[in-house]
Specification:
- The chain has about 170 residues and is mostly beta strands.
- The chain has two helices and eleven strands; from the N terminus they run H-E-E-E-H-E-E-E-E-E-E-E-E.
- It is elongated, with a radius of gyration of 27 Å.
Length: about 170
């Protein structure tokens, strides 16, 4: 068995050296000490994601009594019939940050619904850690919808715009 003082001493030794992991077996007892992995900050430019996007139809209905298994709910059928399937490109956030639709509070938005964009068009600014990062459309087409509001916090991979690509 290992004594607590021995374990503490081994932890100190591992911590003070370049050894990343230590495993010792003594009298049937096994001790495994591992340093936590290094955290590395990497700036990644996300590639645009293209896929079919259908806007969901949302209906809120009062609770219904349980139906028999052979009865299909009509709401699901009507919801799928109302939502047209359109191929739209999503411009997604490549980072966590604050979304700004304009270069300054008193300026016009970079883009709005109906605007045409090309690959190098700046569509918004994302602020992360006091750095202002311009986000480009990376696709030619028309802005169909702006999915976030000015000043909103956004997550990595969160859709920001829908674009009908040319």
């Amino acid at each position: 068995m290992f004594k607590l003082s021995e374990i503490k001493e081994l932890i100190k030794l591992v911590d003070q050296t370049s050894v990343q992991e230590l495993e010792i077996e003594n009298e049937g007892a096994r001790l495994h000490i591992r340093k936590p992995g290094k955290t590395e900050v990497v700036n990644v430019q996300a590639a645009p994601i293209t896929h079919t996007y259908s806007q969901p139809a949302v209906a809120v209905a009062p609770p219904q009594p349980a139906a028999s298994p052979d009865v299909q709910p009509a709401a699901a059928e009507s919801a799928s019939a109302k939502a047209p399937a359109v191929d739209l490109h999503q411009i997604v956030s490549p980072m966590v940050g604050t979304f700004y639709s304009a270069p300054s509070p008193d300026a016009d938005s970079f883009v709005k619904t109906g605007d045409r964009v090309h690959e190098k068009s700046v569509v918004c600014i994302l602020e992360a850690m006091k750095l202002m990062n311009e986000l480009e459309a990376e696709v030619n087409g028309e802005i169909v919808e702006v999915l976030v509001s000015n000043g909103q916090l956004v997550e990595y991979g969160q859709p920001l715009f829908l674009v009908k690509a040319d």
